[in-house]
Amino acid sequence: MAELPNKISHIQVNAFGADSEELSQSGHYTYQYTSKNPVSLTMKNQQATYNHGVLRPIFSQNLPEGYVRRYISEKLRRHANVNDMYLLALQLDKSVGHLSYTSGIEKTDVGQLSLNDILNWQGKENLFHQLLDRYYLNGLVSGVQPKMLVNAVNDTGKPSIGRNVLQQEDFIIKTYDDEFPLFTVNEYVCMEADRACAKLMVGDDGFDCAMLEFGGWDTHNNQSNRLEQKLVELDNGLAELKAGFGKEWQNTVVLIGTEFGRTAKENGTGGTDHGTGSALILAGGAVSGGKVQGRWPRLKVDELFEQRDLMPTLTVLAGLSVCYHSIGNLVNKG
């Protein structure tokens, strides 16, 4: 612990194993390319410096949050100012995806656990807690949910040719090796998915209905900045859908929903926790906007569900039914 820096304000970013740019924070985040090696298709190489009030999605998408973030912050609070820059630096050369980071933090030397060790765990302590305590200073803690990335090795310690995702009750273990280094997705993939969806649906032989799912909305901390990024991604995705549908956009209805709501009140880390009530959004060229279907509850404490969540007024299925049966009132006439 004594060797850890108190603060991280500069990070050398490497893309695909080569130098790319310097990331620094002094009020705003600045990114200055030092080579012709781009970090993202949405951050093209340029002489001008990128300046932004929050981390760009290519950097922030794999930052730990929720329990993992609180765990690291508590472990290091006597030694360091743990913010987004510090958490990014802790990923070292093991970040999920093609980026790695060099700063004043050195990787600790810990023994390698094999996939067999994990699958046959017999320890008295919770496996996830053991893995987190073992690897949080070793560049292997990232992602927006409890997740561990572990090198896929066989019983002899040699690299395995396989790749596995193991779903446990409280966390996910993902294995990686040299053949499959790019596990992450960025905002570009979101737009590409929408573009591909439009291609599949346009034309006489196209699909009538499709579903796209994107994560990263579980904003337990720093919600204001992160939600700004996610809404930009959503907006860009809808723009790609509209462009891809062309003239068919006027006949298109897009339903935007979530699996659960958020608490009505902010928590102690600038975010909101899992809640109950939420909303469904209808968009698209066929939709006549500016209407609210159903009853919107108020946000007074005594009118919240269990005094913490937005009060549900319809189930999701009932909400879908309202949208379906009201489609004649919601879509543009003519």
Write a structural description:
With 334 residues, this protein is α+β, with helices and mostly antiparallel strands. The chain is globular, with a radius of gyration of 23 Å. A hairpin with a 1-residue loop joins strand 2 (18-26) and strand 3. A 5-stranded antiparallel beta sheet has the order 4-3-2-1-5. It is built from 9 helices and 10 strands. Helix 6 runs parallel beside helix 7 (223-245). The protein has 2 domains: 10-176, no CATH class; 187-330, no CATH class.
**What are the secondary-structure elements, in order, as H or E?**
EEEEHHHEHHEEEHHEEHH
Give the total of beta strands: 10
Overall mean pLDDT stands at: 76
* % residues in beta strands: 5-15%
Structural class: alpha+beta
Question: Order of strands across the widest beta sheet?
Answer: 4-3-2-1-5
State the separation between the terminal residues, measured CA to CA: 68 Å
Largest sheet features: 5 strands, antiparallel
